[in-house]
């Protein structure tokens, strides 16, 4: 009777089966031909060949243990007492099954009977494939290559600066959270750097001939390129009609070179970056077409959701509450385990269960248990215990759904507005109505000074020693405005954002984030500009025993043609126009006021690009020193 581990090998795809059995036969032959040489009796678990071709294949590790290999610290070792005859017996079985592979129904039937409790539905096969794919990030040489590209010291310095600010906030009572983890702060800096400096988003590539806009027309099979890209998208230029190929790469090593793509590329490359820093990391795959990562926080004792496309950390409900996704299966994959994490990303568990029809819950659980057991078999007992305890804590977390925060109700930011609207993920704009109030240090300084960098997308309180990320998070009111970063012109600015025409119901074929062609409802023409946009910042000194003495504003704007940017400041019963364009504006008209509002109106412009003809805070992306907005309220006692 054929050994079960040899039959299990045949559960792999044909290419994987042939490659795995070839490697196993080579390992056994080396031992048989060199029985006293210890070199052939040890298999290092960090060897790229072992990681990519053995650990990921069904049945391979079982065969090694059947041969007699035993666990060591970082390797598998075959004791000298193991019988060579037993090795020959197993070798002959593998060789015989390999010779007859695919020649008759019997060879497939035996393997299928062995695992008949786990039918191979397309979804479950994707789970197996994705679980194997993440092992690519365990290649030590590749991790070193990735780490060399990360400005680690710069990120650490920025994180240390943030830690000092947080510690001061805790001491002053402004922040109740006393546990500050430097790894978490470095993670936040890594997310920001990855999105703003390292990786680029691609809705559709520029024409390779004239750099014009292109339109997706379909997929193309290119055998010579198949080993690097898992799918090739074809685009046609709207100007010169030339064709442009956009390969969708999944290999993180290739992505270190291309540094562009959609969520699949972003998640794969970002996971490699996190693993290169030694963090426990998972690749998270949402079956409704999105990918992101999770990083384990030791100080919090839980996994942190990290979306590099959005530069967002720990906001797992944003896909359901903000993007409007109808979630079904959300699976997380790491080097040690596969886990169904759908429940972390939904507050509507009952509705999610109704949509889970790809397989039965028992089949999914059996598949996960099988894959976990096979992957963890070569781990130490201590490591397996740690993983079990961590898993139990995670399962307890899933039992209690929580409600989304305002931050999780925001729509998607990655991709053009037209692309997001077409996917139905633009969401409803929800803003926190932030009010700038003087802190104790600002009261002591007699000045409330706020600066904003559009390049870094951060506010800085000069006297308050505080930074706020995200231009919306420092605004009181926002109406149809978004932040635009031009990769080609290397400029960043705020501009009017777009709206969907009421009568738009056309259908268009579009590639998804992971490259699959899908039919989605979308407008036949969507622009990124509407007729008017505005942003308001509010300042309130009430409660601080201080009032405004005078005001100083420096604000950069850019206008083209008839485009118009108008700044107005109001307080009490009076308003005045603020001179912008980078000039210094000073006034004492609001002497004695306790509340002020500065509002920027973006209007007019001509043609299809009218939205772009009125820009606020325009800056070169290489300028990390200057601030596009600088507001100073000089204060005095009431």
Please identify the structural class as seen in this structure. Answer: alpha+beta
Radius of gyration: 29 Å
End-to-end separation: 94 Å
Report mean pLDDT, rounded to a whole number: 82
- List the uncertain runs: 104-119, 499-510, 515-529
Percent range for β-strand residues: 25-35%
The total count of strands amounts to 32
Biggest pleated sheet:
6 strands, antiparallel
The rough form would be described as: elongated
Helix content class? 25-40%
Number of helical regions: 18
Strand order of the largest sheet: 12-11-10-9-13-14
Summarize the structure.
This protein is an alpha+beta fold and 638 residues long. The model is unreliable at 104-119, 499-510 and 515-529 (pLDDT under 50).
Short key terms for the protein model shown above:
about 650 residues, alpha+beta, elongated, 6-stranded antiparallel β-sheet, 6-stranded mixed β-sheet
List the helices and strands and how they pair.
Layout: H1 4-8, H2 14-33, E1 42-44, H3 48-54, H4 60-67, E2 70-71, E3 75-77, H5 84-99, H6 105-114, H7 122-133, H8 140-147, H9 152-171, H10 182-198, E4 200-201, E5 214-219, E6 229-237, E7 243-249, H11 252-258, E8 260-261, H12 263-276, E9 281-286, E10 290-297, E11 302-307, E12 312-313, H13 318-321, E13 330-333, E14 338-340, H14 349-355, H15 361-376, H16 381-398, H17 417-423, E15 435-436, H18 440-445, E16 447-453, E17 458-461, E18 466-469, E19 477-479, E20 481-486, E21 491-496, E22 507-511, E23 517-521, E24 532-540, E25 546-555, E26 557-559, E27 564-571, E28 574-578, E29 584-587, E30 595-603, E31 614-620, E32 629-637
Parallel strand pairs: 4-8, 15-24
Antiparallel strand pairs: 1-3, 2-3, 5-6, 6-7, 9-10, 9-13, 10-11, 11-12, 13-14, 16-17, 16-32, 17-18, 19-24, 20-21, 21-31, 22-23, 24-30, 25-29, 25-32, 26-31, 27-28, 27-30
Helix pairs in contact: 2-5, 7-15, 8-12, 9-10, 11-12
């Amino acid at each position: 009777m054929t050994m079960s581990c040899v039959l299990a090998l045949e559960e792999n795809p044909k290419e994987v089966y042939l490659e795995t059995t070839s490697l196993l036969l080579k390992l056994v032959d080396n031992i048989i031909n060199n029985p006293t040489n210890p070199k052939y009796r040890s298999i290092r678990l960090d060897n790229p060949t072992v990681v990519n071709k053995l650990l990921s294949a069904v049945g391979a590790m079982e065969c090694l243990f059947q041969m007699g290999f035993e666990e060591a610290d970082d390797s598998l070792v075959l004791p000298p007492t193991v019988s060579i005859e037993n090795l020959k017996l197993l070798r002959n079985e593998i060789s015989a099954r390999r010779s007859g592979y695919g020649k008759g129904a019997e060879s497939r039937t035996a393997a299928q009977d062995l695992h008949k409790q786990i039918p191979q539905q397309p979804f479950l096969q994707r789970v197996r494939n994705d679980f194997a794919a993440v092992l690519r990030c365990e290649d030590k040489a590749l991790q070193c290559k990735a780490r060399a590209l990360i400005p680690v010291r710069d990120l650490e310095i920025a994180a240390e600066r943030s830690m000092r600010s947080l510690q001061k906030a805790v001491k002053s009572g402004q922040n109740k959270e006393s546990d500050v983890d430097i790894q978490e702060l470095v993670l936040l800096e890594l997310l920001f750097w990855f999105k703003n400096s390292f990786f680029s988003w691609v809705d559709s590539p520029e024409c390779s001939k004239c750099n014009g806009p292109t339109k997706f027309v379909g997929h193309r099979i290119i055998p010579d390129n198949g080993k690097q890209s898992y799918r090739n998208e074809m685009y046609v230029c709207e100007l010169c009609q030339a064709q442009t190929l956009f390969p969708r790469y999944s290999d993180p090593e290739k992505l270190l070179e291309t540094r562009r793509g959609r969520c699949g590329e972003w998640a794969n490359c970002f996971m490699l970056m996190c693993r290169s820093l030694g963090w426990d990391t998972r690749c998270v795959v949402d079956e409704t077409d999105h990918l992101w990562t999770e990083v384990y926080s030791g100080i919090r004792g839980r996994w942190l959701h990290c979306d590099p496309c959005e530069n967002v950390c720990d906001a797992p409900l944003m896909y359901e509450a903000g993007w409007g996704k109808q979630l079904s299966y959300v699976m997380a994959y790491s080097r040690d385990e596969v886990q169904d994490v759908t429940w972390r990303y939904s507050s509507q568990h009952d509705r999610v269960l109704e949509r889970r029809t790809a397989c039965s819950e028992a089949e999914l659980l059996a598949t996960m248990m099988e894959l976990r057991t096979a992957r963890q078999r070569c781990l130490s007992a201590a490591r397996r215990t740690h993983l079990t305890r961590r898993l139990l804590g995670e399962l307890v977390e899933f039992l209690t759904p929580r409600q989304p925060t305002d931050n999780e109700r925001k729509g998607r930011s990655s991709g053009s507005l037209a692309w997001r609207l077409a996917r139905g993920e633009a969401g409803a704009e929800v803003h926190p109505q932030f009010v700038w109030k003087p802190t104790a240090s600002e009261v002591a300084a007699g000045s409330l000074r706020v600066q904003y960098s559009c390049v870094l997308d951060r506010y800085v309180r000069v006297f308050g020693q505080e930074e706020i990320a995200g231009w919306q998070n420092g605004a009181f009111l926002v109406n149809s405005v978004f932040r635009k970063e031009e990769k080609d012109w290397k400029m960043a600015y705020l501009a009017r954002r777009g709206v969907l025409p009421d009568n738009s119901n056309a259908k268009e074929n579009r590639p998804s984030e992971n490259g699959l062609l899908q039919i989605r409802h979308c407008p036949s023409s969507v622009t990124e500009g509407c007729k008017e946009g505005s942003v308001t910042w509010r300042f309130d000194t009430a409660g601080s025993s201080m009032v405004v003495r005078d005001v100083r504003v420096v604000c950069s704007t850019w206008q083209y043609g008839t485009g118009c940017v108008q700044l107005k400041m109001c307080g009490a019963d009076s308003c005045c126009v603020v001179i912008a364009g980078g000039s210094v504006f000073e006034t004492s008209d609001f002497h004695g006021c306790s509340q002020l509002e500065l509002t920027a109106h973006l209007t007019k412009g001509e043609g299809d690009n009218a939205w772009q003809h009125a820009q606020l805070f325009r800056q070169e992306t290489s300028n990390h020193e200057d601030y596009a907005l600088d507001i100073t309220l000089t204060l005095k006692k009431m």
